[in-house]
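Example 3.2
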Amino acid sequence: MRKEHPMTRERRVNEALREENRFLNHALLFTEILAAGFFGAFLAVMGAAGWL
């Protein structure tokens, strides 16, 4: 079996981490948008109830 060069292994690990980072950034953006929507709905309900 051929031994893998350390730089090749580091590049592969680095690309995997970069892909995971991309996924987490998208998940965070989705969560922020969802939270803003729920907060907007909450404010609308509070405003309709006359509590604002």
